[in-house]
């Protein structure tokens, strides 16, 4: 992270102190606390925004795999839902974490290879107690990621598996030939190895992955990972189980005792209203709950900062990535659905939460180099909801679509002075933003306003560039809980944005309440 960006974070939420030149001329039309200033250092920036921070997660949970990606035709034969794949290709999914989540530590990969009719059935004890027929296994997952144009990210079983089982899986997918497992892969229809590099060693081992202490997990991590040897051209990118929330001791012990052995540490954090045992609803909520969810989402910034500070002590060169392997909103399940399936709707509010997270990840681009929203289809903060073969995309999907321009672009330093969004006696920064320069020299600016009541007038000073043309799209709706349904699939969708114009050197943006705007500047 360059020096400027750390200065920016200090300014992220500052009371406006506008120089007379800015205040003059607009004071008559706008209340002072709707004015926002943004400086974009358009000719600076040395960090690349990894496409992997826009990653996704697919677990054998509810209708994510079965009934989501993988559907049955009338004769009972399983196949991919091409509509899901096509929709996900449009947002340029860079990686897909699989098979869990908690399920990863119950999963035995050998059950999911070979002729489908011979694969053993198991009970998915962690998610709904349903039968898992293993018809979707390693080959199907790796075909899926190939069709998406994404990178695979496999999470191995530490909780109920063995060192040999994990090492065999690694060899099965990566060994070019000359081994019994590579031969088995060939017999099962795949000649070439897939070259899977990103490899999780367990999931949430402090919880559903085995209720371990950090010291116990450190020893297991070292033991399991020792046997994941580079194969031919594939070197393991090892992902160690990381902390959740403010579990700082976990980060400390992992970095101190094993930091030199892994490439990434996997932080998990979900945003919810109420409590874990009494969560708020996805589409029926008050402004108090809107505010609460935004506050929870913004906590991601503090968590990354604090965990990174610990990591900095052991890894000042930032070799190890902080990977946010699970994030997103977690609401009460939709009425009438299996509580173990975690099926929830997705409203404009979730879209704002997604934008806040992506801005936070981009701001921490030097340490956060990968992230996975939970979960892609039909589970938690999904991109896509399905009914049989039909799909609708969610407001969150549209945010990923608007933000895809930042993938592999150069992060541009910004200084944002935003007025607050006030609710009762509390306040949050109203506006959040990210800026990048793509390989063609175009500048992309994404902004969001979490205030559901008032728009903001944003004055952007583009330093080091002289833009003259701006075009853009906006994602908003008239009500906070607007969402898409199978009956009305386009209630929340991007529309052309006409609220930005150049005024001399400055770009003036009328940013409506509860909106996400993406601008392209030439
Ligand atoms: O995403 C749902 C669950 O949340 C995952 O299985 C687990 O890792 C986390 O607790």
Explain what the structure shows:
The protein has 522 residues and is of the alpha/beta class. It is 25% helix and 27% strand. The strands form eight sheets. The chain has an eight-stranded parallel β-barrel, surrounded by five helices. A hairpin with a 2-residue loop joins strand 27 (500-503) and strand 28 (506-511). Helix 5 (163-174) packs across helix 6 (180-187) and helix 8 runs parallel beside helix 9. The longest helix has 28 residues, at 287-314. The protein is globular and about 70 Å long. It starts with a helix and ends with a strand. The protein binds alpha-L-arabinofuranose. Alpha-L-arabinofuranose (AHR) binds at residues 59, 100-102, 203-204, 326, 374-375, 380. Alpha-L-arabinofuranose binds next to loops.
Describe the SSE topology:
Blueprint: H1 3-11, H2 20-23, E1 35-41, E2 55-57, E3 70-72, E4 78-80, H3 82-90, E5 95-98, E6 122-124, E7 130-132, H4 138-148, E8 151-156, H5 163-174, H6 180-187, E9 198-201, H7 214-226, E10 237-244, H8 248-258, E11 264-271, E12 274-275, E13 278-279, H9 287-314, E14 321-329, H10 348-363, E15 368-374, E16 384-387, E17 390-393, H11 395-403, E18 410-411, E19 414-417, E20 420-423, E21 426-429, E22 431-437, E23 443-449, E24 456-463, E25 470-475, E26 495-496, E27 500-503, E28 506-511, E29 515-521
Parallel strand pairs: 1-24, 2-5, 2-15, 5-8, 8-9, 9-10, 10-11, 11-14, 14-15
Antiparallel strand pairs: 1-19, 3-4, 6-7, 12-13, 16-17, 18-22, 20-21, 22-23, 23-29, 24-28, 25-26, 25-29, 27-28
Helix pairs in contact: 5-6, 7-8, 8-9, 9-10, 10-11
